[in-house]
Protein 1
Amino acid sequence: MTGSAQIRQGIVLLAALVMAIAAVTYLAVELIGGATESHAKKRGSGLTLATKTYSLSQPDQKQRLTVTCPHHKIPYGGGMSSSPPPSQGTGEGVYPHSYERLGVQHGYHVTAVLYDPSKGNTTPRSITLQVLCGSKLGHMTPPHTTVNLGAGDTKSAVATCPGKRHLIGGGFQRTDFTSKGGDYVTESRAISPKSWRVTGHAFGNFGGEMTAIAYCQHSRKPLVTEVSGQTAIDAHQVGTAQTPECPAGRKMVFGGFSTDPTGSTFFTDGGWASDGSRVASGFNNSGSSSNLTVYGYCLKI
């Protein structure tokens, strides 16, 4: 073999080795923490929907989950979906303890629990987080209001935008329920152009904290318009509600939900559908029919 042929063969072998190392490194990143990398889909008007998928497999397992915006974009609202969804009859499935925007980290956070009242033969679930990202978003003020719920309590917390600021959305955090009891959110939505209300209920032998979060921007006038959809859910069944799309010239940037009667329904998946509308699901843990309403908040972008 000539010297030039040996050099060419060496280059080929070196390139193959580099590719193999890169493939192994990528696989390792994919497997760490049971999460897959984020993917982004364009939504028009400079908006991008980024996602990241995790997995839970043990009964009452809780995990903090986050998804970040690509290319230093700025987060609006977010959401969560699980697969398979909660089981009809038992309600075994994934439910959120928090739904909150991460301003400094440019992303969205959900702490999720794999609720399984039977504690046997738990079906593993994958959980996909969403965050809507854009490049044009001014300074955000996030007032928080926290209440404490004792066993059996139902309470509301209201976070209100200060001064000349109005809502573009809201969220919640700090609930703690598992199959043993605790508190869970039954409502998270705007009740005025400046205020976001979160209602929760506690069951079992203990309660916990619950925090309402309002996301506010400077404006002399209201910033968002609301669209909503509703569904009835039979006892011990799962149901899904969906909003219509936003009016022309507006984009859905946050979502919310409410359940009736209060305490009847565990909120589960909530996020954007493929057409840009908003969906929310719930498991009716009561012995009679309940109603689930999903809200979408539409901003002129």
Protein 2
Amino acid sequence: MSLVFHALRAGLFIGIILLLIGVTNVGQTPLFMAFLAALVMARFLELSGPGKALLATRLADEDKSRITTWIIGATFITNMVVPILHYRYSKPLPEVGWWNWLGLLIMIAGSALRLWSIQVAGESFKAQIAVSAKHRLATSGPYAWVRHPAYLGTIIFYLGVTAIFWSSWGLAALLIVVVPTFVVRLFKEERILEAHFGEEWRRYAAQTGSMLFPGL
């Protein structure tokens, strides 16, 4: 698929977010304008850079157990749509404070970590749980700290969204849906990586120590 097509998808995505927040709310709240600008930039960088190949390819030997993939896809609802609607239909609307702006910085940091992780992994980064003969094991950059930094970046991103809209529903979804789903998926992914890379993976896993959160 062309970059133009992905740009149209990104524009549709931003348009949906704009309508969910409310055009009037965005116009009256600098935080929300900054939030949309950050989403536009993150999406553009992913589509025009490391994520372009990721979105355009699928592996023939893709793992067929897709329940975690479906759940991760549904987190757009649980961790983007729900926090926004929770904020929008609160009576009265919560005032914007420093904590909401801090959430924006956290969201940007999560996006940056995810983009960096995709960039370092290159062609080895796939949306599916699968590996092929041409894949290499990424061990540098963020992969020197945790074995799955892109997942960590997504969690940080959603934490930022939760803080921007100060949504207890978003926090609950993060703790009940996102983190457990990622952990289940990563245990399965690590078994596949160990089977493919063998001793190279075991040495890397022992050296890194942390699967998802540094120090844990």
Protein 3
Amino acid sequence: MISQKEIHKVAVDHLFWQSPVNIPEKLCLIHSEVSEAMEAHRSLTSSKDQIEEELADIIIRVLDLAEYLNMDMEVAVEAKHFINEGRPIRHGKRY
């Protein structure tokens, strides 16, 4: 898999990181990718490839922001995974 350093470098090279940096805007862009994935899922004409591409965009934006914030998402995801593994079914909630 491509590293978050490489992903962030491409974003910087393509001028997606201009001063001043606006973190809330970056978070909203992640949210917009989630919305695009939802719309692709809801569309009668969307293919698996279109949904997959939107999910990839979500991951790319998250890794890009994490690199800027000096966060290691590989370590963070692994740690969170182990926390989730130890949780009760549905976190003990009914839903």
Protein 4
Amino acid sequence: MKQTAIEWLEEQIEKDSDIIFYERNLHPYEKYIEQAKQMEKERIIDANRDGVDMVIAKERYITGEQYYNETYGGNNE
């Protein structure tokens, strides 16, 4: 199964943090991580929906990078 960027970040924070502190759901950034996971999930769902809509509407083909630039404002890395 693939790992999202937010899940990867959470894993890295967990590795660098006191494991016991994190496992008790007391990590100071946990609420932000959970919110970011939800936002990322919604964006993935929206991107898929947009792709399906483009096929159904027979719109012009664009690459994933073009989609990102048009949807999220360009060359922000």
